[in-house]
Records
---
Amino acid sequence: DVKVTQSSRYLVKRTGEKVFLECVQDMDHENMFWYRQDPGLGLRLIYFSYDVKMKEKGDIPEGYSVSREKKERFSLILESASTNQTSMYLCASSLGSSGTDTQYFGPGTRLTVL
Amino acid sequence: GENVEQHPSTLSVQEGDSAVIKCTYSDSASNYFPWYKQELGKRPQLIIDIRSNVGEKKDQRIAVTLNKTAKHFSLHITETQPEDSAVYFCAATRDSGYSTLTFGKGTMLLVSP
C-alpha cells in the first residue's frame, strides 16, 4: 500500500511567518505534487516535481516555493505567510512522470494564517 | 492550457436513485480522464478512469462515459448508497511525459437514506 504522509494535520501561523509543509511517500514514486483545496475551487496545482532537485510551477505558484532534496520528501514553503494562504494543502505522489499514473494523496494539512 | 468544468456543484439524491455528474474539457489533445472521490475528512482516491480510445467503462455500480466529439465525460452511479456521499472530482490530462491533471471544481453528492 502506498503511504503518503504530511507533517501536520492542522497548523496555525501568523502573517509574515515562514511556513514549511512536509510530505513523505514510501513507494519510491518519481512524481510529487502540492495542491491547494478551497471550497468551490477544487484542487489547484501549486508545484510539482518529477525528480530530485527538479521542480515545475503549477497553476498557482505565486507566494510558494518547494524543495525536493530526497526522492521521498517534497516540501512546500510559504516564504511570508499571508491570510489568503489559509487553506487545505494536499500532497500527492505518482509512480512515474506520466500524467496518467494514479495519484496517491496525503491526509492534508489545514493551514490557518492569522 | 486545459480547463475542466464540472456540474452540478451539489447533488442530493435518495438512496437507491441514480446520480450523474458531468464534466467538459477544453483541450482536444486530452486523452485520460480520471475520477477521484473524497469522503468527508479523508484524502481523495481514484475510483475510476477512462482513456480516449474507450467510450464507456463500468465497475460495479459506477460507470464513466466519454464523448470525444463534444469533449465531455460523465460519472454515473447507480443504486446509490449513503456511503457514496462524498465530493467527486473529475480531471483531464494528456498521456505524455510530465503532464499534470487539471481537476474540476468538484461535486458534493449527498445520498439520503
---
Amino acid sequence: DAGVIQSPRHEVTEMGQEVTLRCKPISGHDYLFWYRQTMMRGLELLIYFNNNVPIDDSGMPEDRFSAKMPNASFSTLKIQPSEPRDSAVYFCASSGTAFTNEKLFFGSGTQLSVL
Amino acid sequence: DAKTTQPTSMDCAEGRAANLPCNHSTISGNEYVYWYRQIHSQGPQYIIHGLKNNETNEMASLIITEDRKSSTLILPHATLRDTAVYYCIAAYSGGGADGLTFGKGTHLIIQP
C-alpha cells in the first residue's frame, strides 16, 4: 500500500482565497483524521471521521474550516476564506477497523502558507 | 488521557543506545504508553506501545517501570536518521478510534 497520500505537498495562497487540501487514506481503513501543526500549538486534532461520517469536529478552529469525506477513499479540508494565521502544516492520518485501531498512519502533510 | 512529561531535548552519539525517558505518574491501569516520532518535514510515525510488560520490535524497546509511572524508549544503535522529535503518549487506545493528543515531545539529536 502507498500509505496515506496528501496533496498538494505545498500550497501558497493569498489571504481571502479558498484553499482545499486533499487526502487519500490507506485502503480498508475506517477512520480518518485531520491534524494541524504549528510551532506555537504543536499537533492539534481538528476533526475525524468513522466510515465517512464526521464524529468529532470540536477541534475545528472556526466556521471558515470545513471537512468532508464523500467516500472511503477521499477526504478534503477546506478553508474559506483563508487567513495568514492558518499557515501551518496540515496532516491527514488513517487507522484500521475498530478492532485493529492500535495506531495512526500519517501522510506527509501539506505545508500551507497564506500571505 | 494521562499527562506525560518528557525532556525538551537530548543528544546521543551515533552508534550508541538512545534512552528517552517519559514520566506518566497519573496513568490509569488500562492506559497504554505509546511512542511516535516525527522526522523533520514528515508526519508522525508509530514506534511502539505497551501496557505493563516490556516490549520490543524492529525499531525500539519499551521499558515500563513496575509501578507504571514512567517508561523509557530505547533505540539500541542510534543512527543519524533517528534524529527526530519523539512523543510519549498515555492513552486508553492507540487513537485509532478517536485520535491521539500529542505533547511537545523530546527532540533527539544524534551526533556523528
